Amino acid sequence: MLEGLVKDFAEVFGDAHHVRAFFAPGRVNLIGEHTDYNGGHVFPCALSVGTYAIARLRNDREVNVYSKNFPEEGIINFQLDHLVYDEKDKWANYPKGVIREFVKNGYEPNAGLDVLFFGNIPNGAGLSSSASIELVTSVLLKALFRLQVEMVDMVKMSQKAENEFMKVNCGIMDQFSIGMGRANHALLLDCNTLSYTYSPISLKDATLVIGNTNKRRGLADSKYNERRTECEQALKEIQEHHSIQSLGDLTPSQFEEVKHHLSNDVIQRRAKHAVYENDRTKEAVHLLEMGDIKGFGQLMNDSHRSLRDDYEVTGLELDALVEAAWNQQGTIGARMTGAGFGGCTVNLVENAHLDEFLKNVKWQYEEATGLIPEFYTVEIGDGAREMNIG
């Protein structure tokens, strides 16, 4: 892979002298959906697919970037002294925004760059390709300019670049799991405090499969805002009677004691999901420490049912893809992942039944929806880093 990308760099930029290679993974959230803004935990992991960057220093203040994923755009260039969002620069605004954030925080590059990017994250799969570009840019800046900056600070700057430069209102889970990921581990992350623990995942005779519904998530943004408002209302109504800072402060048993204070059934169900899903993320750590993959799979199934019935963010396509997975021998667990209303599912499947799973789920989903799904088998990998060339 890297040797081929170095050759591509030479073709694009004339030669490949003094280049270095970098990688940042994609990510998937294994459990803990719509918990981050409710004061709860998420449980993501970094993946083996991601974004590669072949980079070298220049002797001027010009930055030239090229993406193998968008060859029709050619080389896009900008100046270190003029780091402003420009619509015509399209995808290149992501690395540009990260460089600007580094400069704002006192980590100023003293020379320009030539960079070739290539991502093997499936397009539109919801595995966070934007955060992957941001973190691979961060690690190459640190390495090439010998900057004394910690990974957690690069994570925060990458998120800020997306929030303020790209105007995308994302939380910190994507950047954090991509920057701080560890092979064969998931991260239990408190999105409010950024406290985290690594949880080992030994899949043994199972494979992690991402299923893409190929349904555009048209409702996701408006329904996301609606769910946030409903949870804020639930919190406010409970706070009139009990001293809590967030729904994530409640255990399921505590919620059952206070839910009668909630004004209607819809608000009650939204809050129930937030509380019980947060509990599932913590239970996941306990089960995985004991090596109980089957128990973890059951938590995944329970998570999807809660997202379907209580939070109502799944929809026909996600439900059809998950239910087709549940129908297969060898499925340990399956659930939607991400905002909902389209996008992806995450599945744990026994290796002995993997081929049968892929064939049967594809057929059943196509029968139910008329859409053709895509599947990606992935491994749990390390976070953003420099790589050795040859």
Architecture overview:
- The protein has 390 residues and is of the alpha+beta class.
- Helix content is 41%, strand content 22%.
- The chain is built from 11 helices and 12 strands.
- It has helices at 2-13, 93-104, 129-144, 151-165, 173-180, 220-239, 252-258, 265-289, 293-309, 316-326, 354-369; strands at 20-31, 41-57, 62-67, 76-79, 113-119, 185-190, 196-200, 206-212, 331-337, 344-350, 374-378, 385-387.
- The strands form 2 sheets. Strands 1, 2, 3, 4, 5, 6, 7 and 12 form an 8-stranded mixed sheet that branches.
- A hairpin with a 6-residue loop joins strand 9 (331-337) and strand 10 (344-350).
- Helix 3 packs across helix 5 (173-180), helix 4 (151-165) packs antiparallel against helix 5 (173-180) and helix 8 runs antiparallel to helix 9.
- It is globular and about 65 Å long.
- The protein starts with a helix and ends with a strand.
- The relative contact order is 0.17.
- The model has no long low-confidence stretch (mean pLDDT 94).
